[in-house]
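Final paragraph of the annual report: two paired records, presented back to back.
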Amino acid sequence: MEEMTALPEPMNTIASLIDKEYESHQEGPRPHLGASLLGHECERWLWLSFRWAVIEHFPGRVLRLFQRGQEEEKKIVSWLTRIGCEVHSTGGAQSRVDFGAHIAGSIDGIIEKGVPEAPTKRHILECKTHSLKSFKDLCDKGVKESQPKHWSQMQVYMAGSGIDRALYFSICKDNDGIYTERVRYDADAAKKLIEKGKRITLADRMPPPISTDSTWYQCKFCAAHEFCHGSHLSKEINCRTCALSTPTPDSTWTCARYGGVEIPVDAQREGCAGHVLHPDLVPWDIHDSDDGFVAIYEIDGEMVRNGEPDTNVIGSREIIDWTWKACDETFGPFDEPDTVPEQEPTQETVQEPEPCNCAATSKTL
């Protein structure tokens, strides 16, 4: 009997449609640098993330995993309540800590009393889900060694809440195993983490990377890998990637172009026509400019004026879009296409365009 050809997998499967739905409603980056990030190993990543210069866009499956973690918090609170813990400030009523200078975070919950090992002691509650491999490592080593970012997050929350104990409650997603650990407040560690965060958020210039080796294990899967080890060019145009905006200690952003006025968060996400590319977010050399609202970059040997577009100035979006597109034209980014002579492509006149290397040039910091 002749074997039947297998039917191809349909493109619009239920799973793919669900994932696309999640992806279409992906939230934008947070306006603050969250406490959950302060334990990150790389200060450059923290700076790029806070500046919205590298924005992670997650696939639907990962977004569903995030949602699962949030839903587990409700279960954890329910379980703790059933064994006699008094828990509040959860879900949409979470307590918030704010240290100024754009450093803030939200605590999963507050346990007033009832933790078996210390029934009268207040604890902050930190809920996490783990894969089986991560869960086993956590059980073997404890949270500080196995999950230093989570430990750091709890230290910052304890500093902001005035509560000197935390209950770390983790669930294994593979078998529903539970691991809990009480964590003591480390005032020195918390202070250093908060100071580190403020130094990064208020820094005008980009910090060095954790490694200049593109194969370094902490770099290989980082969302900023292409930026740090490849193009050194941000694709994002918003107020935070603009050289004319400044983060302030009171957790606002101001714009030099408009006389130092505060920029609302929604406006920060859009940017304006006067956007000027930040010199640390492009691979080109910058030259002195006679206009405080225009930067002059040397791109492929040409002096390019960047700012609000006019006859002599090129807008940031045009520069970025041209740089990232495939270089399949023989005219440059700032030549008018209609200046290219119209002629029939013959063997004698057609030439292969030279490869574009403007996005692959590294700038020494």
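The closing record of the year follows.
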Amino acid sequence: MDVRSAREVAPIIGLVIVLAVAMVVLTGSTSALAAAKHSEPVPGTEVARGDVVPIVTHLGPTSFTRRGPLHVGETTLTLPTDGAPVEVWYPATKSSVAGKPEATYDIADWLPPALKKLIPAGYTLNYPSGGVRGVPVAPGRYPLVVFSHGYAGFRDQSTFLTAWLASWGFIVAAPDHFSRDLTEVLGGPTGATAKTTDVEDLEATISLMKAQDSSASSPFHGHLDTLLIGAVGHSAGGAAVEALAAIDSRVTTFIGLAGATVGSFGQTKSGPGSIVPHQPGMLMSGTSDHVVSDVSMIAAYGRMQNPKRLILLRGAGHLVFADLCEIGSSQGGLLSVAAVLHVPVPASLVPLASDGCSPPDLAPPLAWPVIRQAVTAQLRHAFGFDASTAGLAGLGTAYPRVVAASRVSPGR
């Protein structure tokens, strides 16, 4: 190339370089704007420690008795270990759920095939599960909460609480425990060739959600704060989450609802059920629970390490922490429905289907506000979103007909 040609080409090369640089800058700016848009919090929330957190201006004992500012999405995943379904409730935006129906569940889905045949064609016993299917996760990152159902229970059994937590900025994952869910207890096949323990199911659920967070093809990609993990469980599930906390340092806090390990029915001679967790924990119990007595829950509280909290619900039975008393309530309750449909219920399961559902026991919906309040407040405080424990203080005064006692032993 001669000097003249070089001089003629030089401006062209320079222009190409300028355009290339401009494109890089423009592309970078566009990406930054897209990222900023993706991270914009939903109205009524703020970003704290990298997570989207609902704003509470005046924290108190009733702050979480109303729905949070986030709407709720719902989906079903599968554990890779044994194929068990995992129900997931997550924060969603108002616009994404607008005009879409709320999801439901039918308890008959957990009946063994032989018992399903007894149900008339077209008969359903649907109950709202609290979320909307097929909607994206709201922008931002959220802590993970795993939920463990009770003996003869199922993953959707406590949607009054699990869906509620999602509205307050948590992603909640609840597996079916094939070792003790309703299908297994009634003698039906669960689809698992080798039963895993409930603690193993919860560990697998945490690993599943971490994988979902890391996978670019997952709707949960980048939406999970896997450094903040809460574990909540009912009855046998309460014992399971305490045992999980004892052996899994990923768990930040545990909450046992009518269930515990050391000092209560879940204590074992060895293994996770024999170890007192070091993490902060909270126990709740009904004073009229004839399945897991409040006396045993008080004993379990006494064995826990500080900081710890115990809340007793006045006149509440075992199922105050589940939807079950409300399912089929207009038809006399689950046992009455089972009798009409000629579905046999083993005598050993009658208390698990009815304890706390009838007078003089406290009607479960009357206790749900304080349960939602206490669980949400415990999680937020343990995660560091609320420095104060004001959300857990004064519960007896705020709910005099529901809270019989509240005990707390502060930090070490």
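The first strand starts at residue 45 and ends at 48. This concludes the annual technical report; the extension proposal builds directly on these records.
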